[in-house]
Amino acid sequence: MAEKLMTPTEAVASIESGMTIGIGGWGSRRKPMALVRELLRTDVTDLTVVAFGGPDVGLLAAAGKIRKLVYGFVSLDSIPLDPLFTQARERGELDVEEYDEGMFVAGLRAAAARLDFLPIRAGLGSDVLPANPRVATIASPYSDDVYVAMPALPLDVALIHMNRADPQGNGQFLGPDPYFDDLFAMAATSTIMSAEKVVPTEQLLHDSSFHTLLISRMFVSSVVETPRGAHFTTCEPDYDRDEAFQRHYVESAKDPEPWTAFTQRFLSGNEQNYHDAVEAFHQTEGAK
Amino acid sequence: MTSDVTRAEVCIAACADTYRESGEVLAHAVGIVPTLGARLAKLTSAPQIVLTDGEAFLMSTPPPLGKSASGGGVIEGWAPFRRIFDILATGRRQSMMGASQIDRFGNQNISLIGDWAQPSRQLIGVRGAPGNTANHRVDYWISRHSPRIFVESVDMVSGVGNDRARAAGPALKYHHLGAIVTNLAVFGFDADGRVMLRSIHPGVDPDEVARNTGFPVDVQNVPLTRIPDAEEVRLVREVLDPRGARSREVPD
Fold first, then answer.
1. CATH code of the region A8-115+152-254
2. CA distance B204 to chain A (A)
3. Is the confidence metric ipTM above 0.85 for this complex?
4. A25, A126, B55, B203: which sits with the fewest CB atoms below 10 Å from its CB?
5. Cβ of A123 and B111 within 8 Å?
6. Cα–Cα distances in Å, from A111 out to A114, A119, B41, B136?
């Protein structure tokens, strides 16, 4: 079997300009932020990003990586709006497909099942349909109902972050919500899975029940160990959201000058430099 | 007002009243006053409704206000986001959402202000509003009743209003708008699906309601919103919201 365990740089090297990238997690929760930061360090561009968006979307949009964004929402949860996303929208520079959350899930399910579409009631009567002219409706063969035919959202690559993984690509979530990470993986041609900790397979169930085994290695091509790899989003129970740092991100993102300073300070080096800078931030201005 | 009951407490009772005929459904509530309304309903007029912690858990006893299940309460079920979409498609759910704009047919917008291609203000996105309104009863909570929110037409229909639902045909047979509770009044809908006043909160001048609604509403001969009884007020003050978070959303 091919070796799946690799460094973030090796894993992200499989992403090419123009690809469609799905990003797991939800809002500012268990986002594969280390992989996103690694993507920021490449010259990859022209991406279609598919996500229940959080700071992953804000950062990639601000870096000019996104040609098209497919989303149900973009939010930081404890702070409703991500300024980098709203600014990009208000400048009119993003090609967007905005869906109802249920439609978005139906699109991933259709892709995972290798279908062109799945019928759903959500979207009918709303402006989601006129805003997305490629979305058609379909008459039920069994009644007078007409449903939305939610098109499949197939992904070239999915990026997800788990609490634990084994080197073969089995992934484990230990928090309260799996989000849709397994669905992202199944809707993708290949999946890069980062994890807080990579452990031998026989240790996966040492402290937790089998219900936590969300991701099967069948759907994973690369495994990357990234301690604090979801920072500053939540990764329960390993850590909560870094609210002080998220506030700093939002405050910095509101204007170009502090944003340049933010990127210089936190995003100009490697992953270890990032975590060192975050540590320094907490020592000086940001109480945890 | 003839008692010491606050405006926020009147609003909470009005939100609680939206569950009187709901049956055993999941109560989804966005905001402090709607959350307290659902919790009050469960303790009084609608004990069968199912509460959540706003995260992944169904709660037979809710956690302290603003906390998730890890902060206390009694868990009775697990409903991560994926299961929420499955539940709402069954119809066993009722939502009270907010609105950045709402029109006279109850079309709601939370997505953006201005033009779709280049909005003047990008908001949070349509979220689940299209699917909620397509699948189960939806009510709205407006904490600051103003003509900027109650508008002639909304910039992006997120939650579907009555006119749009009728035009969409039989697939929207489960569309059901209930009430719009605001800090000034309670609206329902007339036979044509238009917003109509159902009650005005005690102490509110009817002209204030008319002035703050961006389309014509008849404010004549409208009854007063009911004042919660002593037991409801006690539950809100002593059990559900002892720290008075409700006055952050509706000042005393």
1. 3.40.1080.10
2. 31
3. yes
4. B203
5. no
6. 5, 13, 41, 27
